[in-house]
Amino acid sequence: MNLTDKTVLVTGSTQGIGLAIAQAFAKQGANIVVNGRHAAPQAVIDAIQSENVTCWDQSADITDPDAVQAMIDAIYEQAGRLDVVVNNAGIVNDKLLNRMSEADFSQVINTNLTGTFNVIKACLRPMYKARSGVFINMASVIGLTGNIGQANYAASKAGIIGLTKSVAKEAAMRGLRCNAIAPGMIDTAMTAQLSDKVKAEILKQIPLKRLGATNEVAQAAIFLAENDYITGQTITIDGGLTMQ
């Protein structure tokens, strides 16, 4: 897929990995729809539009199917098309399992997994009609390995991998593709809060001995959007952390 003049929705794109992905697609000439629970800062819109593309702000709570449907309808009304959807929005709520309430578990599942489902489902009918479209879902290496204190997050990200494969199989007959990216430890505001001791322990486990950059995740998203013969796959961006 040539990304010039295509329309790309990136959920959770007002900061971090999501913003890096939105900017990377803009550099390829794609028009961008940024999304978050609240309106995007003007600086985000300006940064994307500095690439001489159009940027729309569509705030919506992805856990609300009606809000998601309204967002997708608005995108088609404004842009007339939707070519690539990057399901990046997600949360964490880490606790040891014996201290994790049902609400703690459900909150993460509803945002990370059900939210991804809501966005994909709302896009399917118009994409099926166009017989074209690409989904890129943000999983995590934690969905592959599990982790202490992250049962809810691990379950949500493992679920995204299974959802990705199912969507890929169902949608292939209509010309759609669906893949996932599983980042490892990426240098973001979240990892910046870790102590030096914790970071040192993490780096011991990473063969490349460094954290990943948000742009390295973004480039994987570009690759998956452009390559028309990849579907149903999960690409890890983790410095070798989970190699087998």
UniProtKB/TrEMBL annotation:
Group of enzyme by EC: oxidoreductase
GO MF terms held by the record: 3-oxoacyl-[acyl-carrier-protein] reductase (NADPH) activity; NAD binding
Source domain of life: Bacteria
Record flagged with keyword RNA-binding: no
Keyword annotations from UniProtKB, A to Z: Fatty acid biosynthesis, Fatty acid metabolism, Lipid biosynthesis, Lipid metabolism, NADP, Oxidoreductase
Catalytic activity: a (3R)-hydroxyacyl-[ACP] + NADP(+) = a 3-oxoacyl-[ACP] + NADPH + H(+)
Binding site for NADP(+): N88, Y153, A154, A155, S156, K157, I186
Domain Ketoreductase: 6-184
EC assignment: 1.1.1.100
Keyword Lipid metabolism recorded: yes
InterPro entries: 3oxo_ACP_reduc (IPR011284), KR_dom (IPR057326), NAD(P)-bd_dom_sf (IPR036291), Sc_DH/Rdtase_CS (IPR020904), SDR (IPR050259), SDR_fam (IPR002347)
UniProt pathway: Lipid metabolism; fatty acid biosynthesis
Pfam hit, one: adh_short_C2
Catalytic residues of the enzyme: Y153
Assembly behavior: Homotetramer.
Stated family: Belongs to the short-chain dehydrogenases/reductases (SDR) family.
Classification via PANTHER family: 3-OXOACYL-(ACYL-CARRIER-PROTEIN) REDUCTASE, 3-OXOACYL-[ACYL-CARRIER-PROTEIN] REDUCTASE FABG
Record-given protein name: 3-oxoacyl-[acyl-carrier-protein] reductase
Origin species: Secundilactobacillus pentosiphilus
Record gene name: fabG
